[in-house]
Write the structure tokens for this entry.
Amino acid sequence: MSGRFSVTYAELLADAIVGTARAEVLRARQNDLASSIAAIMAGSWRGRPRGDICSSGYVVHSLEAALWCVGRTSNFGDAALLAANLADDADTTAAITGQLAGARYGAKAMPSEWTDQLAWQEKIMAIANGLFEDSLR
């Protein structure tokens, strides 16, 4: 299942990076997915209350929680904070949410009060920029 998840998640990130509208990024995707992931990609997470969102670290739960966090917020900071405060395996959920929110909103949307405190900020930015440039080739 993790292979299917990886492909589906890569598609989400690619759509977000190229500036696809939020509703389209979060659209239902019809792939050959396990039924649990297919249900999530079909939007089963929409409208669910916070108490129904599990952030256990299991790949299916992590995908659902990340989509739920990005879908319920309108900026990087709110999405990341919502994910980090879900409890359970919050670091995994926040990392996946941060990837999707970062791809969706861009690096400049990350709160400067967070990024200014990063250790090795210049090195991280150089690596990120290098990876981005490589992806364009």
